[in-house]
Amino acid sequence: MLSWLQILADKKKSVEEIVKEHWMKYGRNVFTRYDYEQVDASGANLMMNYIEAHLVAFVGQKLTANNVTFTITKADNFEYHDPIDGSVSKKQGLRIFFEGGSRVVFRLSGTGSAGATIRLYVDSFIDAQDKDHLFRPAQELLKPLILVALQLSKLEEFTGRKEPTVIT
């Protein structure tokens, strides 16, 4: 907090102005998360199994949504390797990477009797030179990538859900 106060006092600019200057110099990372809560656990598991079974086949595919084309460069089931104790945490999320550095991640949690939660993480980088997109709202920028993720996962087909419960 004190560092931000010092920056504001020194620059004599608003936080918004400072952030926009940063984006114009370094580019911008945009992120959203879609939570689908209280999903039928069997449908959620079927969807995750479907995605995992197709990870290798996804690589190289080109998908288009809202006139934006994405090419899949890598897909995996993330596992975390702890550098301190050497432990490995497997199945931490199904990741799909695209040319240009965008990615989507599907995670499943809470598969108890009350239902499951599917979390869809979506992030992308907007280059500083891309003045047409740099200052647009994150949800607008990520919409084509979200549509591609939903198309790949067949989320609606497996779960019956048309909309997320929560968008952050």
TrEMBL record:
One of its GO terms (molecular function) is metal ion binding. Transmembrane segments: none annotated. The keyword Metal-binding applies. Keywords: Isomerase, Magnesium, Metal-binding. Gene3D superfamilies: Alpha-D-phosphohexomutase, C-terminal domain (3.30.310.50). It holds the Pfam family PGM1_C_vert_fung. PANTHER family: PHOSPHOGLUCOMUTASE, PHOSPHOHEXOMUTASE FAMILY MEMBER. This is Phosphoglucomutase. It comes from Gnathostoma spinigerum.
